[in-house]
Structure formats: C-alpha cells, structure tokens
C-alpha cells in the first residue's frame, strides 16, 4: 500500500516536473519570438526610414533635374570697370541640373550648370558647345574664349593658338553674343578688339585659376568634349 502511494507520488512529481520543463520551453520560445519580432520591427522601421529619405531625396533631385530652363538661379547684373571688364554684381547660383538653362548673359559667366564640365585643358572646339557644360568649366577656373562669324580669321587662329598652350582655357564659336570676340571667366567677361588687344593677356593672367574660381584646382579633363 505504502509502496503504491510512493510510486504514485513519484509519478505525479515527474509529470509536474515535465510540465514545468514544457512551460519553461514555451516561455523560452516566446521570448525568442518576441525578440525576433522586435528585430524585424526595428529593421522595418530602419528600412522604411531609409526608403523615405531616399524617396524625398529622389523627389528633390527629380525636381532639380526637371528644371525647365526658365532661369539659372542668378540675381544681379553686370557692372563695367574702367578696363572694360564686366563683373557680375549679384549671386551666381551653382546648382547642378541636367536640363537646359536660360542664362541672363551670353555667353554665361556662371549660374546653374550641368554636373559634367566641358574639357578645358587648352581645348579648341570648332562647333558650338553646351552652355551648361562650359559654365561648369568656368567654375573650375577656366577662361572661355568665344567668337562669332564676324571675327577675323587671323584673330581666331591667334586666340586658338593661345588657348592650346594654356591649361584651364577653352574656345568655341558662339553667335549669340554682342561682340565678335569675348573672353569669359566665372563672374567676369570682356569684349576684345583683336587677338593683339592687351586685355587678352591681362584677362588670361588674372582669371585662369584666378581668385574668382569657386573650385580652384578642380579638373579640366575627364569631362565632356562638346
């Protein structure tokens, strides 16, 4: 009788212990599930935050890239110095855009521009170039020589030779300008009478990688060729 009771008690204790082990196992699994769920939630929030930030960034970039060319972001006007060099007196925006830009001056001396610069390592272009790429070259400290069909061939040839021998300079035809020969730098511009005009050498000496350069030392190679 006593032996049977002891056996029953032992069996009950064994079942209770088994139930406790099962309960501990369930609690352990539940903790793991809770932790896993928390990790998933946190990860989801992090990813969601990144997606939201990227989406907002993309939206901003898209808005910037979709600039319809109504303006270059510039404010101000030219003021002329005693030497004939015109200096832009207002703000010249430097935002990168991938669309056409309408500039308030021709050729432009600054403003919003293409993310890729026009090669300006003494490059002479015989066809018109994109304003937006050329302006980026000016931002790097280049001097841009432009000429119309009214310019004398001897002057064009002489200026081309000077450009070819001068890093951080470029040259291209440009019909939409007020004088046959114009030299431009970031924020500065001058019309010259000929290649022998003393202002040519002075302008090059002052503005090739001059103090006006927003990004001194930036590359004039590795961009676009036209």
Automatic annotation (TrEMBL):
Transmembrane segments: 32-53
Biased composition range(s): Basic and acidic residues: 14-25, 57-71
Protein's name in the database: DUF3105 domain-containing protein
Top-level division of the source organism's lineage: Bacteria
Pfam families: DUF3105 (PF11303)
Keyword set, alphabetical order: Membrane, Transmembrane, Transmembrane helix
The keyword Membrane is assigned to this record: yes
Chain intervals for the UniProt region annotation (Disordered): 1-25, 57-85
InterPro entries: DUF3105
